Amino acid sequence: MNIVLIGSGNAATVLGKKSIAAGHEVLQVAGRNEEACADIASKLNCTFTINWNFIDPLADIYIVAISDTALSAVHEQLNLDRHLVVHTAGAVSKEVLKTVSKNYGVLYPLQTLRKENAVLPEIPFLIDANTADSISLIKDFAETLSTHVQVADDERRKKIHLAAVLVNNFTNHLYALAEKFCEAEHLDFKLLLPLITETSERIKTNSPSEVQTGPAVRGDEATIDMHLQLLKKYPQLIKLYEMFTDSIQSK
Ligand SMILES: NC(=O)c1ccc[n+]([C@@H]2O[C@H](COP(=O)([O-])OP(=O)(O)OC[C@H]3O[C@@H](n4cnc5c(N)ncnc54)[C@H](OP(=O)(O)O)[C@@H]3O)[C@@H](O)[C@H]2O)c1
Fold first, then answer.
1. What pLDDT, in 10s, does the model give residues 85-103?
2. Are 24 and 116 found together in one domain?
3. CB 112: neighbour CB atoms within 10 A?
4. Which is it for strands 125-129 and 2-6: parallel, antiparallel or unpaired?
5. For residue 243, what are the contacts with CB-CB under 8 A and spacing of at least 6?
């Protein structure tokens, strides 16, 4: 398929590279930041424009990968008539594109994407559209990029996005807090990396609740009390430690 990418950030870059790797052609990148557009266009070997009146009319699919907050106003600058247009957001309704084109939908990459990714990650896609024909087109396209493609309406997509925030953003925040704690206590955070890897490997074949370990699930109150003593200087960590301990014990 011939693709136009709208946006020049992380999602546009990775989806562009992934599309090219699957044998598609990126015709053009349209954005608002000339330097970022030139950079991604050189990586994807395509043209770019910062004037959205000059968006290439010959693409099969237009992928709008701009910030969630900018999507609600995108119809003010983008009119694609009947061309198939999708956005890439987990938490935004597909209806945000209904005045951009008669054929609109969503291509949500359920993955954390960074421009700098040296290796293209495996990406499950949740897709949706306003007509059965568009769903079929987007599904065919997504299946060239991934072996995990599911149709999900706005409600289901928003819920899986929420679950993604729990497993990814919140977990990473815990890593960040643990790293700060290690720095403050002159400990090597990197010693924890094999543990992080082992747990994420284990849940590929087990339910996370079945492989829960640690003092909370064992009911080891002596260790819990000792940890809370050690956290005396860290009120934010005490709050989280108590909250997670309660949550694990009331499962
Ligand atoms: N990255 C991920 O891990 C990921 C995963 C799944 C889904 N998504 C979704 O993909 C979409 C893009 O996210 P991203 O991570 O690629 O964000 P990003 O790296 O921050 O890039 C955002 C892009 O949106 C452009 N933009 C912001 N406001 C705009 C406006 N008012 N008009 C036109 N362009 C505007 C930015 O242009 P400037 O450079 O000029 O600011 C930039 O090109 C979002 O809907 C996000 O939810 C991202």
1. 999 999 999 999 999 999 9
2. yes
3. 14
4. unpaired
5. none
Which residue has its alpha carbon closest to ligand 1 atom 45? 89
Residue at which a domain ends, from 152, 176, 203: 152
Residue 208 CA to residue 202 CA, distance in Å, equals 8
Ligand 1, atom 26: nearest CA belongs to which residue? 66
Ligand 1 atom 21 nearest Cα = 9
The DSSP symbol for 108 reads E
Residue 91 CA: nearest ligand 1 atom is: 47
Q: What is the span of the domain harbouring residue 37?
A: 2-152
Q: Which of 67, 120, 165 to mutate to test the pocket of ligand 1 (most atoms within 8 A of CB)?
A: 67
- In sequence order, which residues have a C-beta less than 8 Å from that of residue 186 and are 6 or more positions away? none
The two structure tokens encoding residue 76: 């003010």
Tell me the pLDDT tens digit for each residue of 41-82: 999 999 999 999 999 999 999 999 999 999 999 999 999 999
- Interval between CA 171 and ligand 1 midpoint (Å): 22
Same domain assignment for residues 163 and 86: no
Tell me, yes or no, if the pTM score tops 0.90. yes
- Residue 135 and residue 226 in one domain: no
- Find the 184 Cα to ligand 1 centroid distance in Å: 34
